[in-house]
Amino acid sequence: MSFSRIFNELVKSLSCLPGVGRRSAERMAFHLLKMKPEEVKSLASKMQDIHNHIKPCRICNNFSTNEICSICSDPKRDKDIVCVVEEPKDIMAIEKTYGFNGVYHVLLGSISPIEGIGGEGLNIGKLVERTARREINEIIISTDSDNEGELTAQFLIQKLSPYKVKIYRIAMGIPLGTQIEYIDSATLGKALLERKLV
Ligand SMILES: [Zn+2]
Questions:
Q1: CA 161 to the chain's CA centroid
Q2: The model's pTM
Q3: How far is CA 70 from CA 66, 104, 135, in A?
Q4: What percentage of the chain's residues is helix, strand, coil (to nearest 5)?
Q5: Residue 189 — pLDDT band, cuts 50, 70, 90?
Q6: How far is the CA of 166 from the centre of ligand 1 (A)?
Q7: Distance (Å) from CA 112 to ligand 1 centroid
């Protein structure tokens, strides 16, 4: 196989990563060529480790190296307050505020009419089970404030309101159309604190 073919295959694969355009992918590929073989091997094995050792938490769907994630298994967390987020990266953003001591449920997506994902495509089974078992007193819906996030929040409210549970929507102070992961910790912490009952 020619150099350009191998090189272009790698550039194509790197371009699949978010925020990486063709030019950045080419720069990365040239950089990889300059790195020591053992460094490249170590990088490749770390990328593989993500799939080999990290799986969704059996309770909340957060990324975890164990069956149950470090947040769900922490005895100091309030297990009856559940913050619902779209993706595990949103948990990282909320944890950085140091303002929330409950636990989470990760939906692993949101309702998206454009992509044909409706409410039935959301991972809410485990959340509904926990609510039905009366393990939860408060649910804080912290989906993004864009159209998909709002549709998802409305769907959750509809599904969870028959149960005896207080449902809050994260307070806005968050600009409309913003994704949770991009909000600064101070604004996000305040929004959580000022959540409103729905
Ligand atoms: Zn968990």
A1: 24
A2: 0.76
A3: 8, 11, 19
A4: 45, 15, 40
A5: confident
A6: 21
A7: 25
